[in-house]
Amino acid sequence: MRKANISSIAFVSLTALLFFTLSLRTETADARPLPPFESATVATPGAAAGTAGNTEIRPNMPRTAKRIYDKPLDLTVVQQDLVCGVTRDQERKMVCVGDSVTSLIVEPVGQVTELFGNRMGTCARDESGLHCWKHAAKFEKPIAELAGKATEQDIRFSYTRFCVARADQTIICYSAEQERWSTETGRYVKAIPPPETFGPFNALKDFEVNDRELCLIDGNSASCRFFADIDPSERNSSAIIPQRQLQNPRDLAIEYGIFCIADDIGVVCTKGLDRQSAKEADLSADWIGASNLSASYENLCASSASKQPLCVKFNLATGQPTDALPNSLKTVLQSPSVKVLDFKASGEHLCLKLKNDGAANSELRCWLYGVEEKMPSTLGEVKDFVVASQTCVVAENGWVSCFGNGRYETSPLPKAPDLPSYFNGCSWNSLRFICEGEEVDSELSNVRQVIAVNQAPSIYNTCLLVEDQNGAVDVRCSGTEMSGIINQRPVLTARPSGLSITHTYGCIYGEDDLQCWGEPVGGQPAPNLSSVRKLLLGASVGCALDKFGFICWGDLQSTGLEVPTPLGEPETVVDFAMGQRHICVLSVDKKVSCWGSNDYGQTDVPELNSPDQIKAAEFVTCASDLNGVACWGLSQSSLGNDAEESAPTTTGTP
What is the pTM of this model? Predict the structure, then answer.
């Protein structure tokens, strides 16, 4: 077995580029490059705490193993509160167990005819029905099934509620799964409240919903009512409806502490949390005929009768409104050659679809907190758009793109003949690659194929090895903390098959080449490696699996991560995973062994039935076997109770 040895590697400094060249590879496939080192004790099921390489366990530490899914999956994401994988059947659906479903991407959508949403989520309708994404709530049924054939005008949702107005003048509201304390069991119990039906109403014109209340306009009156599962002790604060006599009200907007209604004589708002302190304000004549009201805690925006943007900010003390349109936006609107085609807002996030005289295409421009946002350079003509915490647009080809704060956000893929692939919050098919956090200027619409995705134990930054339409191979990365290391990456001399990149160090590897650069993990460059099959980099330790076996390097002694001798032999390890301070390997005889820090039981391997894949996060490890997916270590309750199965979420039906 090899020992990581810095003297076996030639280090070459190429001006601004920190680039490791493994030029001293003279061994043959049968040669053992370096002698073995002393073995460490492997933490196996039932192993005592405090063995070599393990951190001593404190009695109050949670140490749990959970069977979270009953069918094997190709694991793509493992976190303490979220595990995702792709089914191994023909459909290849993404299945997720846990709470953080907002980081995922829905199944591909076709030609989008309708796009709508708010800061809680976004929905699109295509020829196959309704698709919603970036919505974390877990409903008993998929949102598409709950909505049926309802249109944007008939649907409202908040973080935990989904309401649909029906043709019989009633509104049915569904609640997401909730945790409530049970005095009978002495613990929190998960339950989905039954749906509630409101009405029938005489002349339902508009309605809005938050997590506590349903508010609506029925004829010439406005009213609100709490959901049944809101405890009476929590009903002290409710929406404060304006007292002004309404004349043909038609549009309303509600948010925490604000209630606004548009009618024939303008817009009236109430700002406050109780009737005694609430302030009421009538907006100016400019707001007569206003529509598409959108409220935040302090702001209200709308489209004027002439489609011009209107925005005010309410003074918290007096409740009186002041103009809130950004000055740079006012400058744009002053140009006589500019025509506003559409305006939408969500709080302090504003977007306008503009047309300049003589220009072939329209232009979408957005402002967030008064600052104009940088827009994607490949946006093209926008057919429709929705503004929330992100901006989502439908292009002429029907594809949906979402972005905000200079980044791409979660977006659906366009439909393609091939099945989508998933890894670490990214999805791709033959038409397009979508990755949450991808920089706007790095849109991958020119990518022919994704060769590999960053094999790192963290999902906070994602790097891709891609081939473009011209056959050139390059590295593209998302995230803002990696610009230095990415700008230093080497020029590729061979066609690699994988990569692993941290904030300060990176390696690109394959059958014929290994190139590493940056600041080595643990101060020690990568050892002799040949025909690398998998390589992971952590903060202070790196590990790789190549034709000579399994090896780790870096700060091994202080972390207790020395590789036990038997596991370093060739053809012994077929897969491995790294957490923050623990390592697990899958051997050729279908056994999982773990060692390192065991503060949360992340090295206490449970009973597994022929596992074939393992994956780890900071303090948790998961394996896929014939019985499904099992996880051990630190995990949140969203991954299921020890004795219970967790219901999965499929991205096609969030």
Answer: 0.73
